[in-house]
Amino acid sequence: MTAILFGLLCLVFVILTVGSVSALFLYCLQEASAFFLAHDSVVLLLPVLGLVTGFAYYLFGKKIPSTQKILHRVEESQALIPFLTALFIFVFTVLSQVFGASTGRESTAVQFGAALAEFWWDLFEKKLQGLRFSRQAFIRCGLAAGFGAVFGVPWAGTLFALEVTPSQRWPIRFLPLCWISSFGAHWTALALGAHHKVYPSFVALNWSFVLILKWLCLGVAMGLMAKIFVIAIQGLERLLRRIPFSWLRPAIGGLVVALLTVAFKETRYNGLGTNLINEAMTNGIRNFDFAWKSLFTILSSGSGLKGGEVTPLMAIGSSLGFALASWLSLPTLYAASLGLVGVFASSAHIPWTGALMAWELFGFEAFLPSFVVCWSARRVLGLQGLFAVND
């Protein structure tokens, strides 16, 4: 009984710390983005940040597992995730936004959520041998807490922790703990002042066989976009591995992104991509924004600049949905909303999480069409994915 009580206390620490760090992280991202927009010339220093990032991870890289490795080690009983993981990914993700890299925030949520969860589990396990909650339970709770709090979608965060790992079957036994962790961290972040984007309500269309075919067509397009993106980013990673100095790789990516930004004479494709999402929802997107945002994200994330790809993939998906709306005779807001979840959910192999996220962001009417889009996109993508371990 004592072990169970200490386990629950440990879970409370996970919720409070992950929620608090998420709130701080969102605030830092907001300030970093505002700073970049006000001083966009700092993009010229992005290669320098790449050099610093590469050198820091060169020195400590063996101790810091990637997001992919963390997700693949969730079910292991001994693989440790050092606390340094949380510190590094937090700092370098914020710096990536300060200097205009086209990266996201899901890797940060996953890494600091898992690292903080394991920190508390390991601390309590040493103090109290025989803790009734397993390491896997706490890591999954950390994943749920980080994703739910950072993206403001606690239901999707709950499912994310079960669906994103490479298990053949979902470990349903962890569902209650993940649910408590995701909602607890989300509420903690909100209480500390975190803010999340409020999207326009999803306008439901009258169901018909033709409409379902349009969902499938949209899903195929999103799946092809995800496939191209994943192949390109993994190809760039393999190409850059030929460079013997690993610390130099992020600098090369940062240099190319900086040069492209100067060539475009605008910062439209830098940063998280929330500007493109907003424009896709308000009829302000350009037809090839999805392609250019893909290029900037592939160069940034594929070279080793930190933050991840999910938020840029949301921007890519919503931009592509907007571009396809007229071809499919769909309202632009409708197609952009479905696109927002379609590309990222398929590329991460989490169609159920994507559909549930659409429900939370756009309303219940978005759930079924989003699931059809995410499921069909996932089928097109196949076995490739963002979180596959390639080394």
What key attributes describe this structure?
mainly alpha; Clc chloride channel; single chain
Describe the SSE topology.
Elements: H1 2-38, H2 46-60, H3 67-72, H4 83-98, H5 106-127, H6 135-151, H7 154-163, H8 175-191, H9 209-240, H10 249-264, H11 274-281, H12 289-303, H13 310-328, H14 332-347, H15 351-362, H16 367-381
Helix pairs in contact: 1-4, 1-5, 1-6, 1-8, 2-10, 4-5, 5-6, 6-7, 6-8, 7-8, 7-15, 9-12, 9-13, 9-14, 9-16, 10-12, 11-13, 12-13, 13-14, 14-15, 14-16, 15-16
Give your account of this protein's structure:
Helix content is 70%, strand content 0%. It is mainly α and 391 residues long. It has 2 domains: 190 residues, Clc chloride channel, CATH 1.10.3080.10; 173 residues, Orthogonal Bundle (Clc chloride channel). The N and C termini lie far apart (43 Å). The protein is built from 16 helices and no strands. The mean pLDDT is 89.
* Count of individual beta strands: 0
Q: What is the distance, rounded to the nearest whole angstrom, between the alpha carbons of the first and last residues?
A: 43 Å
Return residue spans where pLDDT drops below 50 for at least 5 consecutive residues: none
Count of individual domains? 2
Q: Radius of gyration from the CA trace?
A: 20 Å
Helix content class: 55-70%
Largest sheet: none
**CATH homologous superfamily caption of the largest domain:** Clc chloride channel
CATH architecture of the largest domain: Orthogonal Bundle
Overall geometric form: globular
- What amount of the residues lies in strands? under 5%
